[in-house]
Amino acid sequence: MRRAQLLGACVLLALAFRPAHAQIAAPIVLNVDASNVTQGIVHVRETLPVEPGPLTLYFPKWIPGEHGPTGRIENLVDLRVTAGRTVVPWRRDTLDLYAFHIDVPSGTTTLEVAFDQIRYGRNGERLGTSDKIAIIGWNDLVLYPAGVPVAKIEVRPTITLPAGWDYATALSQERREGAAIEFAPTTLEMLVDSTLDAGQFSRKIPLVSGDGWTSELDLFADDPAALDVSDATVTKYKRLVREALALYGARHWRSYRFLVTLSDVIGFHGLEHHEESDDGASERYLIDDDALQAGADLLPHEFNHSWNGKYRRPADLTTPDYQRPMQTDLLWVYEGMTQYYGQVLAFRSGLEDAKYVPDVYALLAASLDTQPGRLTRPLLDTAVSAPFLYEAGGAYGSLRRGVDFYPEGALLWLDVDTIIRAGTNGRRSLDDMARAFFGGHNTGPIVVPYTRDDVIAALNAVYPYDWARFFRERVDEVQPHPPLDALTRAGWRLVYKDEPSAFERLRDGRDNAVPARYTLGISLSSSGMISDVLVGSPGAKAGLAPGMRIVAVNGRAFSRDVFEGAIKAAKGSTAPIDLLVENAGYFRDYPVEYHDGPRYPRLERIPGTKDLLTAITRPRTATR
Ligand SMILES: [Zn+2]
Predict the structure, then answer these.
(1) Rounded distance between C-alpha atoms, residue 249 and residue 166, angstroms
(2) What share of the chain is helix, strand, coil (3-state, %, to 5)?
(3) Cβ distance 554 to 531 under 8 Å?
(4) Distance in angstroms (rounded) separating the CA atoms of residues 86 and 145
(5) Which of helix, strand or coil describes residue 196?
(6) Kind and range of the H or E run holding 421
(7) DSSP output for 48-102
(8) CA of 272 relative to ligand 1 center, distance in Å
(9) Beta bridge partners of 111
(10) What's the DSSP call for residue 161?
């Protein structure tokens, strides 16, 4: 049903695409009143130049970087259209619910459109808002005329912020009077590409600059203490910019801003743009080294997208407006290669401690190697299905598979990198392809689309190989195992030990997770909640299911220590591990047959081989 509906919309839009006409001769004036944003409502007032007659206005549906129809149409409320003093009725399209039809009265040259944005999600959670911070995504705050590519629609945006707040965005400010800011006219495409972060407590930290360009951290925090970032950490972000420029050799931004919200209310997220990224982390992310280590690749990942994703973009993700459906089949390049380089750049810049290199790849490989869903669903299908896989929950996620083009993409591109390095005796690497394909010469924020054939040709130019077959086998076809060859070629092998790696210990501690995936085959929180069960695992055979909660283990109240103690004690014994489990209000014993003891994924060096993991993650620039 969903697919049929999209197809219908696609045909409708193809008809609606006509050359630009007079209705957008002048810029749309977009006034956003976010002065009461902490109340969870933002007011929008637009003045559109129009011609009399039928007009269709769109609310953005397919949001760049979100890879799905994620526009929150349900949060557009209180829509009022007027021409002078005349109220003009609107009618929602019955097939495309993101389209509004209006009959512009004769003699009308400008239309006033006003609406409100509700900033709450389906479960009552606040969207991009805390008491001290707001993330303003312009696509939530604009209606635009159908029939014109968004790159051709000019907008003159203004915003009013809460008194005393500061802001950052890639837009250029023309005027500021107190809380009211006016920006220079821009295109709708660049407006949506310029998320604005604002807040009461902020700090701007210059990073690296050059001839006519700058880069900076723009931090917004729920508490001023979170802004007290050490010089040592700032130095690592400076190195991140240098490492990315050393990798790609050119940039496609004029200046770059990392907009970072430090908030436990808003939480962890990242959205890429050409000249900025909107990065969200925990409040203490930049002042507590453990917090940074557990997710150090956030800013490197989003920064990498400026090259892969924004400048070079899969052709079928490059749409002329926000209504035409995007096709996500090449996300194993867009996101997969970015996952690889985001991690690599985190290590090269020192943001992630080099001692964690083997641990990170061990966890990646092990989790992908225990996905029952991979026996029927190829990697390609996780990319094609991205629009619904992002929204899908964790229950039986290992059977469904998730957005595996990220983690498996990281291993896939390590595979490619090690093939090139091994085949050229270290003279060439994936970096050479990245530099040629995503670097080139300096440009402003432009889009150059690519196809799968373009990627294959670029790899062949660096190292001739049957890349077409390689991707056919590893991406298109079902593979029972992830590309573990990548690790072997890098000089390492995946093993299981009875002690967790330092990185796993750190990450589980921060995620409130208890490791049980490689023993009982379940995903478990520190409160005993089961979020996933691997089909065929000891846990599944015992009858455990997502949503159940382990209350006691062998008669003793559940805790991480009690659980781990029971796993150890069961080794070599014939007695089952007895779990007392709550399932939707009922309590019952679940005996689990498991006797192999603790198992934690680790990497082990293969003696006598070259260590390519260390070579790949070593800084390219001089560290200082
Ligand atoms: Zn990404």
Answers:
(1) 33
(2) 35, 25, 40
(3) no
(4) 20
(5) strand
(6) helix 407-423
(7) EE--SEEEEEE---S-TTT-S----GGGEEEEEEEETTEE--EEE-SS-TTEEEE
(8) 7
(9) 48
(10) P
Task: Sort 549 into a burial class: Cβ within 10 Å, 0-12 / 13-18 / 19+.
Answer: middle
Strand partners, 91: 101
Distance CA 72, CA 80 (A): 18
Place of tokens 């094609």: 384
Residue 605 forms beta bridges with which residues? 492
CA 121 to chain centre: 18
Q: What is the distance in A from the centroid of ligand 1 to the CA of 32?
A: 28
How close is the Cα of 406 to the center of ligand 1, in Å? 8
- Report the alpha-carbon angle 538-544-545, nearest 5: 125
Contact 589, 576 (CB under 8 A): no
Across the strands, what pairs with 209?
214
- How many whole angstroms from 203 Cα to the centroid of ligand 1? 25
Of 415, 568, 532, nearest to 481 by C-alpha is 415
The residue assigned the tokens 């019952």 is 588
What are the per-10-residue average pLDDT scores of the chain (624 residues)? 30 34 72 98 98 98 97 98 97 98 97 98 95 98 97 98 98 97 98 98 98 97 98 98 98 98 96 98 97 97 98 97 98 98 98 97 97 97 97 94 97 98 97 98 97 98 98 98 97 97 95 96 98 98 98 98 97 96 98 98 98 97 72
Q: Which one, of 341, 323, 282, 280, lies nearest residue 188 by Cα?
A: 323
Give Cβ neighbours of residue 270 (< 8 Å, ≥ 6 apart): 277, 278, 279, 280, 298, 299, 301, 302
Cα separation, 387 vs 447, whole angstroms: 22
Compute the distance between CA of residue 272 and CA of residue 33 in angstroms, rounded to an integer.
25
> What would you report as the CA-atom Rg of the chain, rounded to the nearest whole angstrom?
26
H/E stretch holding 488 reads helix 485-489
Question: How many whole angstroms from 270 Cα to the centroid of ligand 1?
Answer: 7
What span, in angstroms and rounded, lies between the C-alpha atoms of 549 and 580? 9
